[in-house]
């Protein structure tokens, strides 16, 4: 009896491990044991059958019948009996695991056995599904890079996916050079973009809704409000009009904060040719030193109108390029909306006055020393406007204005005048004779100044607003940069071959004589090349990436500005290039600037690499 129990236990374990289910008929329960031949017969039959069962299903299959007489076999899938033992193949895009139940019944014993069948995918459906997944993935990527709401023009996303092309269309406004053009709606408006995605000759369209914010929801740049005494108009360069100034800034929720409130100041027109244009630039003089969106306070500040620049951003881009290059004393640059006597005047650039001060050009001033600090300007406009009241000297048909030291200073002397005149004269003769100039100029500052001027092909780089400064006991340096509204293809008073993106400009003999001679030195060209290559990626090519974001940051302001000054494609004057006049929309103007700088940078790079 003990031995029989051991056999019973072993056979029970075997049945449990094999997954059998034991079912006994009621009539035989009392006499059936685990050594019953019926179970062994079912196990034997199952072992024979599995070699005939399909492990991989690719078509309809008729499942086998048992070979044992009186044995019944039923096939089930998910509890449902298969009719006529037919296991049907279902075309799917993926493999599917089928759990096939074999229910054996033999002489009152019922045992279920589980057999796994893998239904293989249909390759056509699989490939179609893979394409669907691919397109869905591309669409998902587009949704992550598309803005939900917009407040300006924006660059349409570009996805770098091999074999994929994407074309966009919109149901409102237009797309221009891969940028959506914002329309400044009075109320929010939904724009439906259609992204036409093509991959492996398959094209599908996907809709992407984007909301244009209303004009009163757009980001607001700082505002300057000027009130003149008795609302007097400011039209003269020769005298200041007294008044007060307030400055407001806005947070991202358009909540304003007043930084300056009714500060006493005086204002006059500034500039040379720009002083005679309809939208005038101004110089502001506070009674006390005042901070204007700056960490420092000064009495004198400048508002540049950028009237001739129909993008409004040339000066801003140049100043920031110089600043990022680390050029000393680069003027600040902040866009502001200006109101005078409650009238909107337009978008202006708030910047520093070019002057000697600890916060601007930090050199010695008001000293009796001969080798003191000097700030001078090469200014051929001195002749244009017959302004001989300035303290100047004239060398080799060039006017040089001594900005500092001032001859009004009690420490000013004729010896100081003679010193800086002789210094510039010596520099000219040294360069003309191709002698060693290393003791006379800070070459690094000359190179950086030259790079900025040439990238923008600035019309004034040898004519006016060309500043030099000399710290006490040091060499002569170039800078700060100034005045780039007539640059980058803008100056129509130049002949065509001088304003195109190709060609050297500043170093032409009839432009800037100093750089004309410097470019003849192999050492200067070698150092220029080294500096160019050092900053090419970080400061020069990156300039292109700043063009549209700068414009987009002033979207509302430039929209209001050109509503006030309706001049794009209409203003024909001495400074208007034909190419600029032909650009009839703001977007045309922006593309002209981008294409110009892109072309010029690559032309310069190609030429400099030849040094």
Structural commentary:
The chain has 611 residues and is an alpha+beta fold. The chain folds into 3 domains: 2-120, no CATH class; 124-217; 223-608, no CATH class. Helices cover 29% and strands 27% of the residues. The chain has helices at residues 2-17, 37-49, 123-145, 314-324, 381-384, 414-432, 443-456, 496-499, 513-518, 522-553, 555-564, 578-581, 586-608; strands at 56-57, 61-62, 71-77, 80-81, 86-87, 96-106, 109-119, 149-150, 154-155, 164-170, 175-176, 179-180, 189-199, 202-212, 223-228, 241-250, 256-269, 282-291, 297-304, 334-340, 343-352, 374-378, 392-395, 398-404, 466-470, 477-478. Helix 4 (314-324) packs antiparallel against helix 7. It starts with a helix and ends with a helix.
Going by helix content, strand content and strand pairing, the class is alpha+beta
Portion of residues in beta strands equals: 25-35%
Q: Kindly state the number of beta strands.
A: 26
Name the shape in a single word. Answer: elongated
Helix content: 25-40%
- Count of DSSP helices? 13
Strand order of the largest sheet: 15-16-17-18-19-21-20
List segments where confidence is low: pLDDT < 50 over at least 5 consecutive residues: 1-32
Sketch the major β-sheet: 7 strands, mixed, barrel
Work out the radius of gyration. 41 Å
Tell me, rounded to a whole number, the average pLDDT.
Answer: 93
Cα(first) to Cα(last) distance is 107 Å
Into how many domains do the coordinates divide?
3
């Amino acid at each position: 009896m003990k031995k029989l129990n051991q056999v019973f236990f072993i056979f029970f374990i075997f049945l449990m491990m094999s997954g059998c289910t034991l079912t006994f008929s009621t009539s035989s329960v009392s006499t059936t044991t685990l050594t019953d031949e019926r179970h062994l017969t079912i196990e034997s039959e199952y072992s024979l059958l599995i070699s005939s069962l399909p492990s991989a299903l690719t078509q309809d299959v008729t499942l086998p019948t048992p070979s044992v007489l009186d044995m019944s076999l039923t096939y089930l899938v998910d509890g449902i009996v298969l009719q006529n033992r037919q296991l049907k193949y279902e075309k799917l895009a993926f493999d599917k695991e089928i759990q096939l139940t074999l229910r054996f019944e033999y002489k009152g014993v019922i045992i279920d056995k589980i057999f796994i069948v893998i239904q293989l995918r249909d390759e056509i459906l699989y490939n179609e599904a893979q394409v669907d997944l691919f397109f869905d993935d591309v669409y998902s990527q587009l949704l992550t890079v598309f803005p939900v709401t917009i407040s300006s023009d924006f660059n349409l996303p570009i996805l770098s996916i091999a074999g994929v092309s994407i074309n966009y269309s919109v149901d409102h406004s237009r797309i221009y050079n891969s940028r959506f053009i914002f329309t400044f709606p009075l109320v929010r408006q939904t724009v439906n973009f259609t992204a036409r995605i093509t991959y492996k000759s398959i094209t599908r369209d996907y809709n992407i809704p984007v909301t244009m914010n209303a004009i009163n929801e757009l980001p607001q740049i700082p505002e300057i409000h000027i009130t003149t005494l008795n609302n007097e108009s400011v039209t003269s360069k020769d005298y200041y009009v007294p008044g007060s100034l307030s400055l407001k800034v806005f947070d991202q929720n358009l909540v304003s904060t007043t930084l300056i409130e009714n500060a006493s100041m005086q204002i006059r027109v500034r500039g040379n040719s720009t002083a005679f244009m309809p939208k005038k630039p101004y110089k502001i003089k506070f009674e006390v030193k005042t901070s204007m969106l700056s960490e420092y306070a000064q009495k004198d500040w400048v508002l540049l109108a950028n009237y001739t620049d129909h993008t409004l951003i040339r000066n801003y881009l140049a100043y920031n390029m110089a600043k990022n290059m680390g050029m000393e004393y680069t003027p600040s640059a902040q866009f502001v909306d200006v109101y005078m006597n409650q009238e909107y005047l337009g978008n202006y650039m708030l910047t520093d006055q070019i002057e000697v001060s600890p916060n601007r050009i930090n050199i010695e001033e008001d000293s009796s020393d001969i080798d003191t600090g000097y700030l001078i300007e090469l200014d051929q406009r001195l002749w244009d406007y017959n302004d001989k009241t300035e303290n100047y000297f004239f060398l080799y048909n060039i006017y040089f204005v001594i900005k500092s030291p001032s001859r009004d200073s009690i420490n000013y002397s004729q010896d100081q005048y003679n010193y800086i005149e002789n210094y510039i004269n010596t520099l000219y003769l040294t360069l003309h004779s191709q002698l060693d100039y290393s003791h006379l100029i800070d070459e690094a500052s000359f190179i950086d100044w030259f790079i900025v001027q040439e990238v923008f092909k600035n019309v004034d780089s040898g004519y006016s607003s060309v500043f030099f400064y000399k710290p006490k006991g040091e060499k002569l340096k170039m800078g700060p940069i100034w005045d780039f509204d007539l640059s980058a293809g803008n100056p129509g008073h130049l002949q065509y071959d001088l304003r195109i993106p190709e060609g050297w400009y500043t170093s032409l003999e009839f432009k800037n004589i100093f750089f004309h001679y410097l470019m003849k030195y192999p050492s200067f060209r070698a150092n220029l090349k080294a500096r160019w290559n050092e900053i090419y990626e970080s400061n020069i090519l990156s300039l292109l990436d700043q063009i549209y974001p700068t414009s987009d940051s002033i979207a509302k302001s430039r929209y209001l500005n050109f509503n006030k000054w309706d001049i794009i494609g209409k203003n024909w004057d001495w400074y208007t290039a034909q190419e600029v006049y032909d650009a009839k929309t703001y977007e045309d103007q922006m593309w002209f600037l981008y294409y110009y700088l892109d072309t010029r940078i690559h032309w310069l790079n190609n030429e400099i690499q030849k040094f």
